[in-house]
Amino acid sequence: MSGLIAKNLPRFHHVAPQATFIWDPSHFNRKSYATVSKPSAPARKNIVYVDGVRTPFLLSNTDYSKLIAHDLARETLVNLQKKTGIPKDAIDYVIYGTVMQEVRTSNIAREAALAAGYSEHTPAHTVTMACISSNVALTTGIGLIHSGIYDTIVAGGVEFMSDIPIRHSRAMRSLMLRANKAKTPMQKLALLATIRPGHFVPDLPAVAEFSTNETMGHSGDRLAAAFKVSREEQDEYALRSHTLAAQAHQNGHFTDMVPFVVPGVKNAVDKDNGIRVSTKEQLAKLKPAFVKPYGTVTAANASFLTDGASAGLIMTEEKAKQLGLKPKAYLREFTYVSQDPKDQLLLGPAYAIPKVLEKAGLSLKDIGVWEVHEAFAAQILANLKALDSEFFAKTYLKRQQKVGVPDLKKWNAWGGSLSIGHPFAATGVRLATHTANRLIKEDQQFGLIAACAAGGQGVGMIMERHPDAKI
């Protein structure tokens, strides 16, 4: 113990006992739990990812614009049950992530599960952790299964940016609450007389970090400058994402996507509508979206506001066998990280990747599938440069040598959030399902999921292909 710490510790002096207390078990009627006598904790259960589904991801204010988040979440729950064939009453628990919460369905997991016809006896709760909310839904499910409480859990996420909650100003809200309590017409008229123009200015959802008051786009621009990521590099990466996503659509790889029949829309929605393969020349013409006129983040190399939902089925391997299900992958390890929300807001993957690899006892070369959330092209490229930096490794990761650069041929091979779309809380499960499906199609053993999130947080997850896996 260091001298500094020792000096601050309180000094305890030995005091001779004045009386002796004799423990007599007969004084108490106690029962011991069976686990107390066990010499060691039971082995961890194998938890499997059976399958996942999602709605098509759409640009906000397009074909989903007249719906609400509840509609999208319900649709994924209905289709997950149909796709897997699991009896609804075999589902022990439902967990959903969401960021922009709809007030009428604040616990959207429960409301969507009821609307999807799941048993009324199936508990459900909703979580939030910005862009990694459905990762939290998944890992919360993992924890509940490891604890032995449940065997079968549905985890998902939903985001609906076409109709975000906008409140009256605080002054107006206060006045309305007081008016609701007013007992006489005169009292109500007196309150109405206090209304001023400022009362009608709406209270919009924040687009900036609460702790720093900086938008994520500004953070992306500063990160690009710090890691010397050029505008050309960002546009090239964005073009790569859209090109690979378009190819994945054409090749039928998005088997997780379920067509959605939207009331009032002529044809079923059966594809993501944000994928646009452009040219370098066209991308170069776009003006900076945040730091003007010198910034490098544009509408084309940033993810867009998206509506969508996703859901995945996880359970113990033993339960899957009992139900006759063929899992796609094992859920092996996960970790969460957090760092400075100002200068390192988007560097979650650079911290999470080496940490989760170490937990799993794996190296970069062991990973055959990489699925990493693309908030901005600048963010992805800055994280790759951080992983390949000796300075970053020694200064921030406290490692003796750099992590290195993953094999980019295995990196987001079906595109990513820049092209497919990014409904905040739905992306994590989309990443998990794409990882599982790619492990099978590309004949790989291990896949790694990583993502950044608001607040300077991030996640890393390891999945392993299951021997019985089939698309």
TrEMBL record:
Keyword annotations: Acyltransferase, Cytoplasm, Fatty acid metabolism, Lipid metabolism, Mitochondrion, Transferase
Domain Thiolase N-terminal: 48-318
A GO CC term attached to the entry: mitochondrion
Subcellular location: Mitochondrion
One Pfam family of this chain: Thiolase_C
CDD domains recorded: thiolase (cd00751)
Main location: mitochondrion
This protein's record includes keyword Transferase: yes
One function term, GO molecular function aspect: acetyl-CoA C-acyltransferase activity
Family: Belongs to the thiolase-like superfamily. Thiolase family.
Name of the protein in question: acetyl-CoA C-acyltransferase
Organism name: Trichomalopsis sarcophagae
Source organism phylogeny: Eukaryota, Metazoa, Ecdysozoa, Arthropoda, Hexapoda
